[in-house]
Write the structure tokens for this entry.
Amino acid sequence: MAERRLPTVIESLRRGLENGKLMYAQWRGEAATEPPRIFQTRDSMEVIGWIGTTLVIIAYYPQIRHLWVEKCAWGISVWTWVIWLIASILLLIYCVIRGEVLLSIVQMSNMASIVITIVLVRRSNTVCAYHLSDTAKRTKT
């Protein structure tokens, strides 16, 4: 029953958003135009999903690079990363059961990045110059 209702709810929300845009355009005195159809096909949604997946992967790079190069884990909570790892495992199970290939790849990427981060945090044994200066500034005030 819930599976049949969800598309109906999503469709209602989409129509409501479109109606709201049209009403706003009319209120401003602009010509009411149809909303762009670029995101209404499955293929274009796949492209958006893959772009999002790429951004997820790229987002981990600065943290992992800092941990690798500087060996500095100042202020990083390992327990937070462990919780994110558990969440990613549960979401991966959910995605696999639902047959969501794209989201499964996102979760596997998350899990790999999280494991790398935890390993690098555990091997970090220094505080970089940036964080030392930040600590010094905080202790002076």
Remarks:
- Residues 1-35 form one domain.
- The mean pLDDT is 79.
